[in-house]
Amino acid sequence: MANRSYLYSAESMPNEAEIPQPIRCVSEHNWDIPLAHKLMVGRGTTIVPSMIWNPPIGIAADYAGGAALLRDLLRAVGEGLEGDAEFADCVARTTAHLEKQRAKYFVLETGEIVSMTDDDPVESVRRLASEEIPGAVAQAEAAIAGQNDAWLASVRADWQRHFASFYGDALYFSFPG
What we know:
It is a single chain. This protein is α+β, with helices and mostly antiparallel strands. It is globular. The longest helix is centred in the last third of the chain and has 24 residues, at 121-144. It contains seven helices and six strands. Helix content is 45%, strand content 17%. The model has no long low-confidence stretch (mean pLDDT 93).
């Protein structure tokens, strides 16, 4: 079994008392939390209780802001990949799915990824929310503004790792709805 990060959308954030309803499946990615997932939870990032595991290792964020940031970066990456049909197809499928699953919040489930090391999962998520996600957002914003060409070139060269996640209506962990 692959350890995955899972991205969902919901109209409210999970809290100690309840899981939001309905929960829409957005994406899952094997063995990592990819750049796309980090950017999608990069606006209004908040640590929340997990909907799957016991510790508070979920991350919620503004859907519209995160989706717009990802679309803007995909546009900038695509400026160097004109004629790459595989990239164009990935962008088209991703943006269509994001529009279909639109809600007020993204909810990122990190449990399988943060449990791959001996580090404390709660501390790993705190670091993710306070350092890694804001760092990725800052890099992306600079690249979109034309001020981070070397980083943009590295993302473009390995775009599959950053953006080619599985987007679907059902993920390994799906919720009745």
